[in-house]
């Protein structure tokens, strides 16, 4: 029995020794581990809390001279400024154009859909000009088409809504509703917000320079027509519409320049109807006006597109300058069909004024042919002005048929060739 107790006592001592050794080893391991991590944690900065800093000892501070505020930097003078002129041709109102735009419930017209497809293009311009080839004398005159027009004022409202802001009002239909009708047209379109050029209420207005500034570029406008379809201008009312008179135009160019115009645009209603090439008379007059100081000639009246050309000339200071002559911008909206009468174009001129020299250059001239799409969803026609090239590129217009695309493609090639035929290669 003693031996057995002694043996058990030895085993117990051995077990206690092992447990004590394990306890000491564990304590030592924990101590080493804690001491190994402490320096690392002291070197890491919290992402949200900055490390504590000691308050500086006043005796260790060195005085620092106060800094003067930095001088305001000198503003950089711009080297140039850019602006965009956009021009389109004839705005006409034939009788078939009216019923589809009429709302019986409100007894009014809405032509906004006509110009909606090209509004984005027009929006890129600053001066946006169209030839208003119809009086807008008012409902009491009766709405009439060819040969003596009178359109609803809502047609001008749609033009304004699509972005246009300047109307040329000198053309062979200016007096279709007489002098009073021409004056009321000015009343109506100016009330909408349009600047007008080419006709006037009195001599004072006729002699007033139309100069419109955009982006620090001042553009002056003039407008003249070859005639008024045989309707006589009453004596003493010569101011009512400007007729083409070269000497008068030359004097008007000088007046615009004297009054501050840096660029001069002249709308000329001239040429022969339905002729795809300009006449010699057109070319002679337009080139003389460019040489005399005009910069852009915006032609209308033929009702079809004619070529455009760039003309170089030397001004009175001996500097070589360029002028743009558009002989005919075609029909922008009308009911005329066939023989390219249903085509027009949006002409865009990117202008740049150089501040060092004061010269204004044509950076780029862009032409976007347009097509008047006429369709008949019910008993009345509807009209849309479509940009030809973009329409062909998309080919996703639900209102167009395959034969429409085929016609547009062939006509686009023909019109491009016609428009560029007078450009120097």
Q: Could you spell the SSE succession in H and E letters?
A: HEEEHHEHEHEHEEHEHEEEEEEEHH
Mean pLDDT: 88
- State the helix count: 10
E-strand count: 16
* Helicity range: 25-40%
Share of β-strand residues:
15-25%
Radius of gyration from the CA trace? 40 Å
Query: Any low-confidence stretches, pLDDT <50, length ≥5?
Result: 1-13, 30-67
Q: Quickly give the structural class.
A: alpha/beta
Distance between the termini: 130 Å
Major pleated sheet:
8 strands, mixed
How does the overall form come out from the CA principal axes? globular
Protein name: Capsule biosynthesis protein
Family: Belongs to the CapA family.
Organism: Paenibacillus montaniterrae
Pfam families: PGA_cap (PF09587)
Write the layout of secondary structure elements.
Elements: H1 2-43, E1 80-91, E2 102-103, E3 108-109, H2 112-115, H3 119-122, E4 127-132, H4 153-161, E5 166-168, H5 178-192, E6 195-197, H6 203-206, E7 210-214, E8 217-225, H7 246-258, E9 263-269, H8 280-291, E10 296-300, E11 308-314, E12 320-326, E13 331-333, E14 343-354, E15 360-375, E16 382-387, H9 388-394, H10 402-419
Parallel strand pairs: 1-4, 1-13, 4-5, 5-6, 8-9, 9-10, 10-12
Antiparallel strand pairs: 1-14, 2-3, 7-8, 11-12, 14-15, 15-16
Helix pairs in contact: 4-5, 9-10
InterPro entries: Capsule_synth_CapA, CW_Biosynth-Accessory, Metallo-depent_PP-like
Keywords: Membrane, Transmembrane, Transmembrane helix
Family: Belongs to the CapA family.
């Amino acid at each position: 029995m003693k031996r057995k107790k002694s043996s058990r006592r030895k085993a117990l001592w051995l077990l206690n020794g092992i447990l004590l050794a394990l306890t000491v080893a564990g304590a030592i391991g924990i101590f080493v581990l804690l001491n190994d991590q402490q320096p690392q944690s002291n070197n890491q900065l919290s992402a949200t809390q900055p490390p504590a800093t000691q308050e500086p000892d006043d005796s260790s501070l060195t005085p620092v001279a106060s800094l003067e505020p930095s001088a305001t930097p000198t503003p950089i003078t711009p080297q140039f400024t850019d602006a965009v002129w956009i021009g389109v041709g004839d705005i006409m109102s034939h009788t078939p154009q009216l019923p589809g735009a009429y709302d019986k419930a409100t007894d009014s017209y809405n032509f906004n859909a006509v110009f909606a497809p090209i509004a984005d293009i027009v929006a890129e311009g600053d001066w946006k000009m169209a030839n208003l080839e119809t009086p807008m004398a008012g409902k009491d005159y009766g709405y009439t088409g060819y040969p003596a027009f009178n359109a609803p004022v809502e047609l001008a409202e749609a033009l304004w809504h699509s972005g246009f802001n300047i109307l040329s009002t000198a053309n062979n239909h200016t007096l279709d509703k007489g002098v009073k009708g021409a004056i009321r047209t000015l009343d109506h379109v100016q009330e909408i917000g349009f600047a007008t050029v080419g006709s006037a209420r009195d001599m004072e207005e006729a002699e007033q320079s139309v100069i419109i500034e955009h982006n620090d570029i001042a553009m002056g406008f003039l407008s003249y027509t070859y005639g008024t379809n045989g309707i006589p201008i009453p004596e003493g009312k010569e101011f009512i519409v400007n007729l083409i008179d070269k000497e008068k135009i030359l004097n008007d160019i000088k007046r615009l320049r004297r009054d501050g115009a840096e660029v001069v645009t002249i709308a000329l209603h001239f040429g022969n109807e339905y002729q795809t090439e300009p006449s010699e008379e057109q070319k002679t007059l337009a080139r003389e006006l460019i040489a005399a100081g005009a910069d852009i000639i915006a032609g209308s009246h033929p009702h079809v597109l004619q070529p455009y050309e760039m003309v170089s000339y030397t001004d009175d200071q001996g500097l070589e300058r360029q002028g743009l002559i558009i002989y005919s911008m075609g029909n922008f909206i009308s009911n005329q069909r066939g023989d390219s009468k249903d085509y027009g174009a949006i002409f865009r001129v990117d202008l740049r004024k150089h501040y060092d020299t004061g010269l204004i250059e044509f950076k780029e001239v862009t032409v976007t042919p347009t097509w008047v799409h006429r369709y008949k969803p019910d008993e009345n026609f509807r009209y849309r002005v479509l940009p030809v090239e973009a329409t062909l590129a998309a080919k996703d217009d639900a209102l167009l048929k395959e034969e429409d695309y085929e016609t547009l493609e062939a006509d686009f090639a023909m019109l491009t060739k016609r428009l560029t035929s007078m450009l120097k290669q």
